[in-house]
Design the sequence.
């Protein structure tokens, strides 16, 4: 579904990504794990077009998307939950979800999807009239996820959904990610919490200083000696 | 001759040579009155732009009414020389001083709103004040109303009966004042006071939390800038001999602002260069009068499009150290007694064994009826590491904000080392002994790692702005002292190699470390860490745990930390408080917390409690 | 009493023109955080357009109004694309200086083309003023206040209810995330400039009906005052711009009538400073303190 071939990305003189190759199959959950500054978020930003890659190719459903501006991708079925949630604080929960469906014009379908999202996140339904800025961190994460799902993406990319959340909420969020995936959405997950990410993922890639150094099934990587030492704390 | 003295002599020689060259040219008649006048205008403009750069470049607040201060200085000093019967050689400097002081007074008045307002709103206030000053001048009798003041003594004629001599003296006078003002802005900018001002530009919240009295420094910057603008105004009045209020309107302020931005915000040398260019440019274009302003505005737009951060950005030309070097030379010649290096570090030796260093008594706060925290009773013993955990939105960061005075508690007490501190300002609390880090890192990004730490030494240094400007022995010894201390601190964290790297370009992990380092520089007894492991993977977290333990033993501080990473919390905390809905719902050892039913349902979750238990 | 009421009505008249112009400032500021100093000069562009259409071409007033709006929009969009868009990721002050540059350019170009001599603006509406117990309300006043109020309500509805309006609000909070929603931020910003300039075009026509003299620098002062009005009401807030405009207009005309003509500017700025000191984000602004 998504193919990333040999991409390189520079921030000024600093090379953030070096010859990154990976792919995502339909129906999968694929995780990217690695240390800070390893380039995980840069990969997502390169795919969504927020940053422009200097070389390589990005194919989404066999179509090149590397030159497309970010706003064109949503319509193609590619949606992103940005790092740090970034909900529209001065807009209501309802309006935030509407923004997620910006590229769609089928009102009945949108209403239906909104109900579907409220079913996943009942807390959002209680607060649908509230301004998003007044929500707690966990609720904002849910809203950011719900907002991204409103475009009915084929591939949902999530950037650090567990960041700054309490253990209980982290579990809840990961349970929901699994549910979303089981309903048929393919997921590309960038996570610091390697434990959670690997236990959830079908396949995973390990990044270090802008390179992919290891890949494999989630469970297999969890058993890997190096990965255990570096990312699982023993 | 070492490198320092060599470059000092070079700079000094260059300045002198420039002065002599112009003087000779005036004396020989190669520079006629018209050109000499332009040179004086350039000097005045340099004073205006470099002083505006103090507020706009160093403090980072857009000021749109700088010409207002110039107006005050111009009118006050013109009225002074008109009404005082003194020799002009005496009355002019006096009048400049008076004009500068009155302008400084107004600068301070205008600075007061700056304490409440930020950014563009503040810009509008300065615009408003500038315009009000102008309108009031138009409506007063003493200022000659809309017709303005005329027949002000012209300095190019009044110093001597010989016109040539008089205009040379006038030039010398203006050149000297300009050079002195520039030098003083440099030395002030490179002192602890300058660092304090720049730290506000970089991150006001962090500045206050590292012990900078931000309100006082905003006022200082506004006052200094106004003072110099007032002097420039006084010079201007005695240059042109006629002043009208419309000479100092909004457009004039904008003109100076344009020069500052074109030169590069925060770069004094940039301001100097752009003043010279932009004053001479219209003169050069005089031939094509009709198109002059069109060319000027197109150049302005192009310049911004192609060099958006100005000519020099925030960099400086090599004259920066002129003043410092002058003094080195001075010492060399007169063999003045070397100043002793004074260390700012006065560790607290008070023994607080078995007594709490920090305790709160039913601490609470409500925002308009909404209770964010209540009945918080926590205590930290000497050298203890204590965790503060709880679900998102439970009020953990609120507790930090209450302890550090970011919020004033609506009920209860905070006792630090036996003294109540609630109600104090953040910077005072920092000086009293509580330092903190932030959930999302707040470093002074464009300052070097070393300077980030130096800012935090502020509250333990004493030398005044005046000593900073003249670089006296006190200033030098203290500066040397903190340089040593700051480097020592970096060494403890194995970051000496990064001392000169701008904080913003350090890797994430080192930024976190630097923030802790900066917090320690204010010599705290209590260190508050807000999610130090956020965004770290397990191996980084493990390293952080070591660092925290090292800090506790080496710096003898009690540490209170907010964290979601249970491995870290359970691994290093001796005791843990759990917060939910703004209340402490449990407290005890990690073992007790792990098995607490209420904590499991509210926060840990069944799985987590299990996993952790099995790990332990 | 009659003097007071007449001055109040005058104030509302001027105030609603300020409000129309202020809307443009406030919308642009809301989305690109730029004090668009050239906005005042757009008024001048609109005024000259209207004069040319009315006098030189001799066409009717509605055509002139339409032409003014169209030309203002074209200028606004061109300025945005050429001068501001390349600087979107630069320090904010750079675009501010560019805006100042554009303002100077427009003024001086007009000076070159039309000369410094103010040109008279023809009377386009000759309807008897309405008299009520000694209070005189001119038709132009009614028209001005009415048009402004209607436009503001329409605009507010557009921003709150329509998809494009929501896109504007989203983009004004966070460009990157707005893009991830599928919003074309560039188009949205251009649309914002276009709407702001269209309003300025209408404003310029109404302004000329009140003060029938067209000159190259005519836009600076009402531009500055409209901007102050926007800040007074709370910048970025549409009803705030309207309220700010009315407060400014009324304060100005009452000061002129009761205190002194020359002091009116000082009073206006004084009000602004007082309001900001009490309520740092303007009359209708919401206080949002930075989360620590």
Sequence:
């Amino acid at each position: 579904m998504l193919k990333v071939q040999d991409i390189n990305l520079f921030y000024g003189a600093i090379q953030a990504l070096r010859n990154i190759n990976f792919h995502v199959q339909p129906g999968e959950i694929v995780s990217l794990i690695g240390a800070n500054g390893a380039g995980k978020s840069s990969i997502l930003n390169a795919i969504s077009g927020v940053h422009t890659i200097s070389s390589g190719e990005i194919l989404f459903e066999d179509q090149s998307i590397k030159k497309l501006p970010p706003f064109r991708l949503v319509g193609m079925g590619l949606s992103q939950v940005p790092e740090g949630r970034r909900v529209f604080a001065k807009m209501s929960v309802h309006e935030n979800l509407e923004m997620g469906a910006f590229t769609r014009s089928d009102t009945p379908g949108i209403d239906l999807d909104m109900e579907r999202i409220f079913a996943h996140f009942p807390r959002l339904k209680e607060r649908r009239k509230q301004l998003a800025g007044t929500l707690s961190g966990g609720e904002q994460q849910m809203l950011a996820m719900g907002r991204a799902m409103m475009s009915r993406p084929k591939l949902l990319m999530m950037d650090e959904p567990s960041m700054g959340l309490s253990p209980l909420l982290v579990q809840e969020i990961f349970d929901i990610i699994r549910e979303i995936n089981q309903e048929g959405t393919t997921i590309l997950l960038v996570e610091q919490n390697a434990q959670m990410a690997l236990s959830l993922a079908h396949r995973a890639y390990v990044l270090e200083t802008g390179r992919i150094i290891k890949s494999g099934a989630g469970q297999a990587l969890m058993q890997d000696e190096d990965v255990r030492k570096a990312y699982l704390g023993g | 001759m070492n490198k320092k003295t060599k470059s000092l002599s070079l700079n000094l020689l260059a300045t002198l040579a420039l002065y002599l060259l112009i003087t000779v040219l005036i004396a020989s008649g190669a520079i006629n009155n018209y050109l000499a006048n332009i040179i004086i205008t350039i000097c005045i403009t340099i004073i205006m732009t470099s002083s505006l750069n103090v507020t706009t470049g160093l403090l980072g607040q857009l000021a749109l009414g700088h010409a207002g201060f110039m107006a005050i200085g111009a009118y006050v000093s013109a009225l002074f020389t008109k009404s005082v019967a003194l020799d002009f050689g005496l009355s002019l400097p006096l009048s400049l001083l008076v004009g500068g002081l009155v302008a400084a007074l107004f600068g301070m008045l205008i600075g007061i709103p700056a304490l409440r307002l930020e950014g563009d709103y503040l810009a509008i206030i300065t615009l408003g004040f500038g315009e009000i000053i102008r309108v009031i001048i138009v409506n007063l009798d003493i200022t000659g109303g809309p017709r303005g003041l005329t027949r002000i003594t012209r300095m190019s004629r009044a110093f001597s009966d010989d016109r040539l001599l008089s205009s040379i003296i006038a030039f010398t006078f203006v050149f000297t004042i300009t050079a002195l003002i520039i030098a003083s802005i440099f030395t002030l900018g490179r002192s602890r006071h300058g660092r304090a001002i720049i730290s506000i530009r970089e991150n006001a919240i962090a500045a206050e939390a590292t012990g900078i009295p931000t309100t006082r420094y905003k006022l200082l910057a506004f006052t200094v800038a106004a003072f110099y603008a007032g002097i420039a105004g006084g010079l201007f009045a005695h240059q042109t001999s006629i002043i009208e209020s419309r000479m100092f309107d909004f457009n004039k302020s904008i003109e100076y602002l344009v020069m500052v931005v074109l030169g590069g915000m925060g770069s004094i040398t940039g301001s100097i260069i752009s003043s010279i260019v932009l004053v001479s440019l219209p003169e050069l274009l005089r031939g094509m009068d009709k198109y002059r302003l069109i060319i000027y505005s197109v150049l302005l737009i192009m310049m911004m499009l192609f060099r958006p951060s100005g000519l020099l950005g925030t960099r400086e030309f090599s004259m920066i150290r002129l003043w410092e070097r002058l003094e080195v030379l001075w010492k060399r010649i007169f063999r003045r007694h070397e100043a002793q290096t004074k260390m700012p570090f006065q560790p607290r030796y008070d023994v607080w064994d078995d007594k709490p260093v920090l305790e709160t008594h039913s601490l609470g706060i409500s925002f308009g009826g909404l209770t964010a925290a209540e009945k918080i009773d926590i205590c930290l013993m000497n050298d203890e590491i204590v965790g503060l955990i709880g679900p998102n939105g439970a009020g953990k960061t609120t507790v930090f904000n209450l302890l550090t005075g970011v919020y004033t508690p609506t009920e209860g007490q905070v006792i630090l080392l036996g003294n109540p501190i609630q109600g104090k300002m953040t910077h005072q609390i920092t000086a009293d002994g509580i330092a903190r880090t932030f959930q999302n890192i707040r470093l002074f990004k464009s300052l070097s790692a070393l300077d980030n730490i130096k800012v935090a030494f502020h509250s333990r240094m004493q030398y005044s702005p005046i000593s900073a400007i003249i670089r006296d022995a006190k200033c030098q010894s203290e500066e040397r002292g903190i340089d040593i201390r700051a480097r020592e601190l970096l060494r403890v964290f194995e970051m000496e190699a990064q001392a000169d790297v701008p904080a913003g370009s350090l890797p994430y992990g080192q930024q976190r470390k630097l923030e802790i380092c900066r917090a320690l520089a204010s010599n705290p007894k209590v260190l508050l860490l807000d999610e130090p492991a956020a965004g770290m993977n397990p191996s980084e977290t493990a390293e952080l745990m070591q660092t925290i333990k090292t800090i506790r033993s080496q710096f003898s501080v009690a540490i209170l930390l907010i964290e979601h990473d249970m491995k870290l919390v359970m691994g290093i905390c001796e005791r843990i408080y759990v917060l939910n809905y703004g209340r402490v719902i449990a407290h005890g050892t990690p073992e007790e917390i792990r098995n607490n039913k209420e904590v499991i349902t509210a926060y840990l979750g069944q799985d987590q409690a299990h996993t952790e238990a099995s790990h332990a | 009493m009659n003097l007071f009421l007449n001055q109040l009505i005058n104030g509302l008249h001027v105030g609603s023109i300020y409000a129309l112009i202020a809307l443009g400032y406030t919308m642009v500021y809301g989305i690109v955080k730029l004090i668009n100093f050239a906005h005042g000069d757009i008024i001048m562009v609109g005024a000259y357009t209207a004069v040319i259409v009315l006098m030189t071409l001799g066409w009717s007033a509605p055509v002139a109004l339409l032409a003014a709006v169209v030309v203002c929009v074209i200028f606004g969009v061109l300025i945005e694309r050429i001068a501001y868009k390349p600087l979107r990721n630069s320090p904010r002050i750079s675009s501010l200086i560019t805006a100042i540059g554009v303002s100077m350019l427009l003024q001086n170009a007009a000076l070159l083309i039309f000369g410094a001599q103010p040109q008279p603006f023809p009377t386009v509406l000759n309807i008897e003023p309405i008299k009520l117990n000694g209070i005189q309300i001119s038709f132009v006043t009614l028209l001005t206040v009415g048009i402004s109020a209607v436009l503001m309500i329409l605009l507010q509805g557009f921003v709150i209810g329509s998809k494009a309006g929501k896109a504007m609000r989203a983009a004004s909070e966070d460009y990157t995330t707005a893009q991830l929603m599928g919003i074309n931020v560039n188009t949205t910003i251009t649309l914002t400039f276009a709407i702001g300039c269209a309003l300025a075009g209408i404003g310029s026509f109404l302004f000329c009906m009140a003060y029938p003299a067209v000159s190259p620098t005519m836009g600076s002062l009402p531009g500055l005052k409209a901007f102050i009005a926007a800040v007074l009401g709370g910048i970025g807030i549409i009803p705030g711009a309207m309220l700010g405009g009315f407060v400014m207009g009324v304060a100005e005309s009452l000061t002129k009538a009761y205190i002194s003509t020359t002091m009116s500017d000082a009073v206006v700025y004084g009000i602004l400073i007082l309001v900001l000191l009490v309520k740092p984000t303007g009359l209708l602004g919401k206080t949002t303190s930075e989360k620590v």
